[in-house]
């Protein structure tokens, strides 16, 4: 089967997906995240600095990574998120402002400045989403959605707010329903989720649930450490002007 583990920011999506892979031996897709793609696609930038066209570019990079990874996995895989996710996030940023963590004054000013281009951006998003949704319908058999149950992680990488997280969750669920892809909501601790998901599909365990979670968390820590090192290097190279602008953006 081709199963998607769905959820918005800080719902345990990646840890659950990785742990399921270790627990069952089922291949999991291995596409790079946006922040891993950033140094290659937009060197010298972080996500909060991206314009709407640059976000679209990152979405295309990510879509390519997903399609290649899914193809390499064949007819059976567990996907960390889906091809819909990054497009939903980018569309959410068009609605809420490119950096949803900005204060209301900054968001309002940026929305006002972008009004001239918004209809064009909306049209482009809809046409690109049409192609992405066609891939989702053809590729995913079922979706396991992880609801918002854990506090949002403030890792300094993702410019989001709690309101943005809940908005994008609604958008994700609405798109999945419109596409007719079967969706099950599985909640609880990561241990409970793994037990529920493997029971749903009758998947045998190759190791214990605690061991699978430990391996998934070790992998997540390694990726986070590498991302933090890149982010810290960028912050150290920031000019005083950018530091000032970043501070004012919280207004």
From TrEMBL:
It holds the Pfam family AAA_28. It comes from Cupriavidus basilensis. GO terms for molecular function: ATP binding. Gene3D superfamilies: P-loop containing nucleotide triphosphate hydrolases (3.40.50.300). Keywords: ATP-binding, Nucleotide-binding. This is ATP-binding protein. Residues 2-193 form the NadR/Ttd14 AAA domain. It comes from the Bacteria. SUPFAM superfamilies: P-loop containing nucleoside triphosphate hydrolases.
């Amino acid at each position: 089967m081709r199963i998607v583990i769905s959820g918005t920011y800080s719902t345990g999506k990646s840890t659950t997906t990785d742990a399921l892979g270790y627990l069952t031996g089922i291949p999991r897709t291995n596409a790079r995240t946006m922040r891993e793609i950033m140094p290659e696609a937009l060197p010298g930038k972080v996500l909060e600095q991206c314009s709407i066209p640059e976000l679209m570019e990152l979405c295309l990079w990510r879509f390519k990574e997903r399609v290649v990874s899914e193809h390499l996995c064949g007819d059976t895989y567990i996907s960390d998120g889906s091809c819909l996710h990054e497009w939903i996030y980018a569309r959410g940023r068009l609605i809420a402002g490119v950096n949803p963590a900005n204060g209301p004054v900054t968001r309002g000013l940026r929305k006002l400045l972008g009004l001239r281009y918004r209809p064009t951006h909306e049209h482009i998003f809809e046409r690109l989403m049409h192609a992405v949704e066609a891939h989702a319908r053809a590729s995913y058999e079922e979706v396991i959605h992880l609801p918002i149950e854990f506090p949002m992680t403030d890792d300094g990488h993702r410019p989001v707010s709690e309101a943005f997280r809940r908005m994008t969750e609604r958008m994700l669920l609405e798109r999945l329903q419109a596409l007719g892809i079967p969706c099950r909501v599985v909640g609880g601790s990561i241990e409970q989720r793994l037990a529920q998901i493997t029971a749903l599909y009758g998947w045998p365990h190759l190791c214990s649930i605690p061991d699978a979670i430990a391996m998934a968390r070790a992998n997540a820590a390694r990726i986070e450490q590498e991302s933090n090192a890149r982010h810290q290097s960028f912050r150290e190279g920031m000019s005083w002007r950018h530091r000032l602008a970043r501070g004012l953006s919280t207004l």
